[in-house]
Design a protein that fits this description.
With 316 residues, the chain is mainly alpha-helical. 66% of the residues lie in helices and 3% in strands. The chain crosses the membrane at residues 152-172, 178-195.
């Protein structure tokens, strides 16, 4: 009977390892709500960003020898195509008035391009901040899960040892079998608990949700008109057949949601936030990093435009 009491005490103590420790909650209170400051709209195009890309390219066909297709579309998005046409005409003139006008145009164009770069960098910085916030929560949850699993493993070992000792001390064969079966069942339960893929959970909020803007295609809710245009215009992607936004969403469906778009549509990731489990947090961290990479790719295309502009402004 003493051995049975020992086992029961062990089982009771093992039940306590899954109790939530409220003292840890204070450690993540500052991470639950987003503290990442959204960027203001730096770029204000002088004309609406509209029009069919093929029509825009046809109307600016004379620029094709100096600018790439993405470059011409970016100039259009920033309202600079008329300035570029005027700049190219005036550069052939050598009189003082023309030179002054050329300088004014260059100043305006450079101001708009640098503003666009600042706009992109601000968005990338916001994503970097959000990614870091998610990573901190993921690290916290993973450490809690690791500690929990370690306790379950130790408890399982202790239970096995206690059952072995009880088997040696209990002479009643039927009772011995009962103890062995009970210990085995509890041990199996502990083993399954360590394999729980969802682990612990916590509240995590993001009322301004850039990932949702990509998923729904409503980029104007979170991105500036310039960045939104580059994300949704297919000519800015490598394939030229689908936009950067569409390609990113396809990758999310394939890799984060295992090809199940409906599962993605129901995910907490695309809401204002709520209860996140470990796997949800890992997915959000990966998706935030992927979106940031796309924004950096947009930045590279703008950098290429700056080089193209430098070539025409230093040619004369």
């Amino acid at each position: 009977m003493r051995s049975i009491l020992i086992i029961l005490l062990l089982v009771n103590s093992m039940a306590c390892v899954t109790v939530h420790n409220k003292r840890h909650a204070a450690a993540v209170l500052t991470l639950q709500d987003s503290y990442c400051k959204p960027p203001g709209t730096v770029v204000a195009a002088s004309v609406p960003i509209s029009g069919n890309a093929d029509t825009i390219l046809a109307a600016n066909n004379d620029l094709r020898s100096r600018f790439s297709v993405p470059g011409i579309l970016m100039l259009h998005a920033l309202g600079l195509t008329a300035d570029i046409h005027r700049l190219l005409r005036l550069q052939a003139d050598t009189d003082l008035a023309s030179r002054v006008q050329v300088l004014e145009i260059k100043t305006h164009v450079n101001s708009q391009l640098l503003g666009a770069m600042a706009d992109i960098n601000a968005t990338a910085a916001e994503l970097d901040c959000e990614g870091e916030r998610v990573d901190q929560v993921v690290s916290y949850i993973d450490s809690r899960n690791a500690a929990r699993n370690n306790k379950l493993v130790v408890a399982s070992i202790a239970l096995g040892a206690a059952a072995a000792i009880a088997g040696a001390l209990i002479s009643n064969d039927d009772l011995n079998k009962g103890v062995a079966i009970g210990a085995g069942g509890i041990g199996a339960g502990l083993g399954l608990a360590t394999l729980n893929p969802k682990g612990k959970k916590m509240a995590f909020y993001h009322h301004r949700n850039l990932l949702r803007a990509v998923w729904t295609g409503k980029v104007d809710s979170c991105f500036s008109p310039f960045i939104g245009y580059m994300l949704t215009e297919k000519h800015f992607s490598n394939s030229g057949t689908a936009s950067l936004l569409q390609n990113l969403k396809k990758r999310w469906i394939a890799y984060q949601f295992e090809g199940d778009e409906q599962q993605g549509a129901q995910s907490v990731i695309f809401t204002d936030g709520g209860i996140y489990r470990s796997d949800d947090l890992h997915a959000r961290a990966a998706m935030t990093n992927q979106l940031q990479a796309v924004i950096r790719a947009v930045s590279q295309q703008l950098h290429d435009l700056l080089l193209e502009m430098n070539n025409i402004t230093t040619a004369h």
